[in-house]
Structures are given as structure tokens and as C-alpha cells.
């Protein structure tokens, strides 16, 4: 369990420190996928309602980041990548992070319910719970499958966006969920390969720590293979079309090449060469997701002009 008492000394926090609590960089892609889910839905949403809905999803996503930083302060303090975060750096106390997380969560869920509908608000509440409690408090410290199951949290946002517009869950929103769900393991494990020491120093049972780099490479390849038909299959639903199909085929072929290049690496090779491959696949994973959702958006944007879709 997280020893949060060590992080209760008040520090001198600026506005920027509170922004950092919300994990803005990671959440930008979360918010983009929610926005796409809302915009590609077959039901038009008044721009003010759409703007408000995405704002509250962003607030909820940020709140879940603050809750994660509250609980994980001890882990974050040990890892090079995260030790400068506001709680381990002593800028914001753990109690403040908890208060920000709980306060913003409550506001975001209630306001989304009022602005859009209670299905989307319920999904947002469940997503915050899943990331903060199921992933951060339970799975992260207990199983190397942490990010496979916990990754579901990051996959919900487009489903929330779709529900904001339609008040329903549909095959399209389930496919957008599945796309992110299957993408998360290769996205994260590519990073974990070149951050392995961080996680072992912090005692987090990531696959790289518990099963080693060879097994992690195998897992990346398998998940990337399983991801491809999900991603390409979405082309043949109401949110797909020729632009998305072309993008999905190209992006999945490239991601598979990357996973294959990682798979071929071995420990006898120079560490710097291995890390270069792993880093490039991690970076590409971000473009991969952004461009898939960008392609969904392009299909929807072109529909009024008689193009886009099938
Ligand atoms: C359990 C699921 C996931 C895990 C464990 C994970 C882990 C990570 C980690 C450790 C980083 C480096 C973060 C940092 O700079 O502090 C990262 C970066 C990133 N992740 Fe993920 N991720 C997950 C899911 C997602 C999802 C669902 C999205 C968006 C849809 C996402 C988007 C990003 C982005 C945009 C970055 C780059 C941030 C930057 O520029 O610093 N991740 N991820
Ligand atoms: C709408 C809503 C509530 C969205 C939440 C989306 C969500 C759960 C995204 C997960 C992304 C993420 C930063 C995982 C990091 O794992 P980590 O926390 O172990 O990474 P760290 O080591 O950087 O802290």
C-alpha cells in the first residue's frame, strides 16, 4: 500500500504544479479520442453541449490523474521519469492531490450528467474508478497483467464521447474501445523495455521485471498482431470508410514492422541499439492512435460533402 504520510509536508505549489497533477500530456490523447467519439456519432450535438461535455471529460480524466499521483507518490518518488512530479517533489501534498482528484471527479461527473446524459456520466465515473482504484490501487502493484486489464480505463473515453451524443453504447463505440484496449499493451511495454530499471527499482511488477525482456518482446508482437484486425475491421462499420481503411492498413503494417523489429532484438546486442528501436516504436504508438482517430474524424467531416464513409 502506498505510504502517503511521507508526502504531507506542505510545499510551495504554483498553478503549474496543479496542472501537472492532471497529467496533461497523456490526457490530451484521451480527450482527443473522446472528442472523436462524440463527433463521429450519428446524432448531432449542439456545439455548446459538445464543448461542455468534452470539458467535463477532460476534467474527469485530469481528476483520475491526480488520484493516481496521490496513491502512487511513493512509486513516483523512486522512478527517474516521475520523481519531479508535484507530490514527490514536495510541491503539492498527497492530501491536496487527493482533494483535487475527488473534488474534480465529483464536479466532472455531475456536470457531465447535467450537460449531456447520465449514461455518459456513469461511464465517466466508472472510468475514473477503474483507473484510480482498479488499476492504480490494485492491479499496478500486484500483477504483470496490470496494464492489460487496467488499460480498459484508457479505452473508455471514445465510448463516453459517443454516449454523450447518442445516450447509447453501440458496436462502433465498442470497436473504438477495443482499438485502444488492444493498443495499450504494445504502447506501454515498448516504453517499459527502455525504462525497465525504473520499474524494478520501484518494485512495480511490470512484465519486463517479472518475466524479462524476451517475454515482453513476444507479448508486444502478439498484441500488435491481434490489434491489426480490430483496427482494420473498424473500417467496415458506419464510422469507417476508404480514408480510414487506407490509414489503418498503412499504420498497422508499420506498427507490425516495429513490433517485429523489437521481437528480433536480443540482449547480446548493444543496449543503445535496442533502446533506439524500442523508443521509436513507443513514439510511433502515439502517432498510431492519434492518426486512427484522426481518420475516423476525416470520414465524418467529409460526409456532408458526399464523401467519407462507404
Ligand atoms: C494502462 C494504460 C497505459 C499505461 C500504463 C501507459 C503508460 C504510459 C507511460 C508510463 C508514459 C510515459 C508518460 C510520461 O511521460 O510520464 C506514457 C506516455 C503517453 N501515453 Fe500512455 N499509457 C497507457 C494508456 C494510454 C492511453 C489510453 C493513452 C491515450 C489514449 C495514452 C497516451 C499517452 C501519451 C499521449 C503519452 C505521451 C506523453 C508525453 O508526451 O509525455 N496512454 N504512457
Ligand atoms: C476519462 C478518464 C477518466 C480517462 C482516464 C484515462 C486513463 C486511465 C488513461 C490511462 C493512461 C495512463 C497515464 C496510464 C499510466 O499508467 P501509470 O499511472 O502507471 O503511469 P505513470 O507511471 O506515468 O504514473
Map the helices and strands:
Elements: H1 15-21, H2 24-40, H3 47-71, H4 73-78, H5 94-115, H6 118-139, H7 146-155, H8 157-166, H9 171-194, H10 196-202, H11 207-210, H12 212-233, H13 242-264, H14 271-302
Helix pairs in contact: 2-3, 2-8, 2-14, 3-5, 3-6, 3-8, 5-6, 6-7, 6-8, 7-9, 8-9, 9-12, 9-14, 12-13, 13-14
Farnesyl diphosphate binds at residues 23, 26, 30, 57, 60-61, 64, 68, 72, 82, 124, 127-128, 131, 140, 153-154, 157.
What does this structure look like?
It is a single chain. The chain is mostly helical and 310 residues long. Helix content is 75%, strand content 0%. It is built from 14 helices and no strands. Helix 2 runs antiparallel to helix 3, helix 8 (157-166) packs antiparallel against helix 9 and helix 12 packs antiparallel against helix 13 (242-264). It is flat and about 55 Å long. The N and C termini lie far apart (52 Å). The model has no long low-confidence stretch (mean pLDDT 95). Protoporphyrin IX containing FE (HEM) is lined by residues 25-26, 29-30, 33, 81, 147, 150-151, 154, 180, 184, 187-188, 191, 286, 289.
